[in-house]
Request: fold
Amino acid sequence: MKFGHFDDANKEYVISTPRTPLPWINYLGSQDFFSLISNTAGGYSFYKDAKLLRLTRYRYNNCPLDNGGRYYYIKDGDTIWNPGWQPTQTELDSYSCRHGLGYTIITGSKNQIEATLQAFVPIHDNCEINRIILTNNSSSQQHLDLFSFVEFCLWNAQDDASNFQRNFSTGEVEVLGNTIYHKTEYRERRNHYAVYSVNRDIAGFDTSREAFIGLYNGFANPEAVLAGESRNSIAHGWQPVGSHHLKVDLAPGASESFIFVLGYCENPKDQKFEAPNVINKKPANELLAKYQTDEQVDQAFQELKDYWSRLLSTYTVHTDDEKLNRLVNIWNQYQCMVTFNMSRSASYFESGLGRGMGFRDSCQDLLGFVHLIPERARERIIDIANTQFEDGSTYHQYQPLTKKGNADIGGGFNDDPLWLIAAVCAYIRETGDFSILDEKCAFDCDFSRAVPLIEHLRRSFRFTSTHRGPHSLPLIGRADWNDCLNLNCFSEEPGESFQTFGPSEGPVAESVFIAGMYVKYGTEYAELCDQTGLDEEAAEVRRNVKEMETAIEDAGWDGSWFVRAYDAYGKAVGSHTCEEGQIYIEPQGMCVMAGVGVDDGKAETALKSVEQKLETKYGIVLLQPAYTKYHVELGEISSYPPGYKENAGIFCHNNPWIACAETVLGHGNRAFEVFRKTCPIYLEDISEIHRTEPYVYCQMVAGIDAPTFGEGKNSWLTGTAAWTFTAMSQYILGVQPTFHGLKIDPCIPDTMKGYTIDRTFRGVRYHITVDNSAHVQKGVKSMTIDGSPVEGNVIPPVQDKTDVNVVVTLG
Ligand code: GLC
Ligand code: GLC
Reply:
């Protein structure tokens, strides 16, 4: 069943009922100020950091779900309704929600009044704009009351949700004219406040939640709205809110707009006040002056649209498959940008309180956005490298505001260092900017010990080389990519964190997955050394890589697939000798991507085993058979009920690894099939089963062992976005940035006749036509550049041209 449709011309998903299977959300903001907004206008806003600088309050895991947002109430006689249905849940005569790129437009109508909420964060300002347009479609004059509502968060979202003995006494506001200022803690150590304003004269306002809603009412029936008048309340402690009351008279056919702005403002420390305890309103006045008229709002909105069109034009494909086009050209790249902005902090599954920026997560996310915003990818790499330790190991996470490693979780996740090599190589292949290797990067943020970035990569590689176990395979430490395979943890007490309990190092437990990574990214590192004249180092790295391949062949091969790991007793994990968890997806994907076993048929056999043992109709599960018992020697993975999360869920992140691996073997049909099964756009018709947004990937779909097989969870913030874009744009459609130029090497279904791609690469626009009238799955027969035939399939760097036409014939 569908709950809406894609509008590709406008790059929007149009939701046609507020009762979606779960809240379907969107993100507003691209720089510092961000908001989450659901299809019923739920969600919240923050400045830079979802934990520390949260403007509005949100209650996760509430009942009803998705409770709290920017709510606009319309009182029309005795009928009170919201354009987005929530929170009054008054039945609407019509409803639609358009989630677009960086904006959301919700329109509802009731009794011939139409109300539209247009929400976006302008490119250059720290605010969310909510333009409400009310239209009278009836034949008589209408008198309406419009009430706005947001609930302020007392900045630190964690403290806000727990420290009530203090927080019930600290709330402070000011009101001047149409503007409400939330200034809790501004008197003392903060120099920022929030502002909520409307561009019209108001009939009243409220800033005390109790006054506006009433102690025992809820968002659905605020007393002030029921009464049709504000209380003009000033909050002293308790729960500060912002609400405006506007009286609206609409002639038949008339429309009026109301521009609300929720903003974040800062003052220099010595200019905080304009009078004793009266905040300096200069930054607020400047901000609000920019959004007083419809023309100003239209212009800011157009700027936002242009920003996105420009960004997404970097890679555009035209195939016969409109779903594929939609995924690549719009939603996948959009999701990559959202993961760039959010990492794993704030979604409807990530509360914005816990995880900072994951080291491995951020490195992998970069694979999906480096072509869109290379300058910011560069900054990100340097921030990440600055947190590395001198021995090449890394913190598992760092804090976005301080950019320091997160000591609470520490290090010991032994795949982390190698992801830095992956990120840096991807960046240089995209940009050709080798100068980044000379950039001085600190160790553990100590800049007195900064060394060039290339030295960080060297230490990443060396860390794995020198931390190996009894089978010469890499030691796993706390965990590798699979955070939940905790082989040194041995936790018996509820509540102990699997991620941090027990020793961070163990001398025995090893990871075949890291071994595969070492081969793949070691080889990339060797190529990088070739490019920079480090010939001896390149040779040495290749020798090490070869040794690791041998170790995989000796101890990492189970007969029909790659072993996953060895536990702390030296017993194989992910082997036919195991009772549960006999085969895992990760080493099959990573080892084959690395080229291990390609020559001797092991790769072919491993991928066949994946198809036979792990494949389901909704995608490939992480392992089989699912763990039914808690295995203390394996940790968190066996804590999940069978079929969920890492315990045999369909972990969307590593499905594209298998798609990539299939292309290494030339299996275009199969690669596409793997891609299609987890792609949300192809699942739109079963939204009642899949439940999460059909326009973005989720982290996990319940696996075959789960009672809710096919149900998605944890949408938006997942490495799946970047890996899918990599799999599709590079491995399948075959446009691959290399150190020397763009390589074209498609591996596609043989039914695909051909396609065109427009790709901006190092400032040049390439118009690439792929002709597959031969109906093959892989193999470039010939290539022309601006009409002239060339040898091979790498487009050499172009100098004096802005546009280049490339025709690639497969055969
Ligand atoms: C989550 C984490 C990621 C990890 C994966 C598998 O997506 O963010 O770092 O690799 O789970 O455990
Ligand atoms: C949980 C999740 C896993 C995530 C880890 C790190 O274990 O299941 O996916 O990577 O937490 O926070």
